[in-house]
Amino acid sequence: MDELINQINIYHHLSIKTTAALREIFSVKFFKKNEIILRSGDVARYYYFVKSGLLGYYTIDENGNIIYKLFFEENSFCASTSSIIQQSPSAFSIVALEDSEVIVYSANAFRKLVAEHHDLALFQIAYLEKNWVVKKEPLEINLKSESAKQRYIELYENQKLFYRLKQHQIASYLGITPTQLSRIRKELNF
Fold this sequence. Notes:
Layout lengths: L1 H10 L4 H10 L1 E5 L4 E3 L7 E7 L2 E6 L5 E7 L4 E2 L2 H6 L6 E4 L3 E7 H10 L1 H17 L1 H10 L2 H10 L1 H4 L4 H8 L3 H11 L2
Antiparallel strand pairs: 1-8, 2-7, 3-6, 3-8, 4-5, 4-7
């Protein structure tokens, strides 16, 4: 569980007392490839931290096509945050795209600790600012302004993630068909 504590400390250093309280709510779970971790329509109750493996965050369109929104690699936090906050059914599912080892912790228990430990609240603020504002804003703009080819190149630049994905997952993430992806790959020749 040290990986998770180290990742939190990147955003804001936690006291020994806060770290000990957090460790009490953590548990490690293993998910097999293609195992559903959270099903769309269920109310999300947990946060996840990827120790090893790869998770996909997706929805299904009216034609039954999987649309990937995000991928979560090692040392990533994952959750259906809007479902947790609103206590409403999640619009997204989370699936293990590889055999994965994940630290799981209750959203309610975590939120209680956030209210009790100022340093944990500062972590939460720093994390949300960086990942939900600074990091997410350019992604939303790129989705509206960049071509699929430009977005493919950006994904390709993250070699560690790129080579872990199947072609249909990349096409889904880019919002294009596998045929369109083949054309882009042929044109770019990489």
